[in-house]
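Intended use. Records like the one below are meant for learning the mapping from a protein sequence to its folded structure. Do not use them to infer anything beyond what is encoded.
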Amino acid sequence: MRTVFIHGAGCTDDVFAAQLDAFDDADAIVLPGRRGEATGPSTIAEFADAVERQLGARSAGDVVLCGHSMGGAIALELGLRDRGSVRGIVLIDSGAKLRVAPALFESLERDFSAGARALARMFFADPLPDRVEFATGVMLEVGQAQTLRDFHACNAFDASERLGELRVPLLALTGKDDRLTPPKFAQFLADRIPGASARILEGAGHFAMVERPDETNALIAAFVAETKHR
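Structure written out for the chain above:
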């Protein structure tokens, strides 16, 4: 069973460097619309279709999907499709509904570079310069058009009424200081999905896997080990 990481809006698999180093069986999806691709999807369902194709091409078999932010929405969508190959889901700073503030769209549309930097500062409980530069650089690499498509996909996503249909175990990890998907998002999932659990990471914001990699990795490893024995 493989652990597969799915990144979030305006990002690439670079955000999972600490996880890919820690898990021997890990793989990461690079969503369409980056790394030289001119245009990518604009809905969570379309992203999920693309991830299914990538997993099929890699003959991934049974997987635990670990999705960050928008990647969590994609993982949820795939889990709700109930194909049988998804054995478990880990959501990192994500939720069943991912509304985006109009001001964020305005900022990214008006001056993408400045807007990306301002957003990057919001990603972290402790916005150290190297962290902000890293997150800003990733968004600039993805580019304005696809980053906006990503966030519009998030804004339209709402699986809150379907959570009872999920038939696989789920772990929701959220940074205590996450300003974009605060801890109540994780608790909402735990309250509505049978057998799901929520864990809140101290000293972390929206990029918990970057700010608290060891704690994040330990929780994922324990979840994957438990899932293998179900």
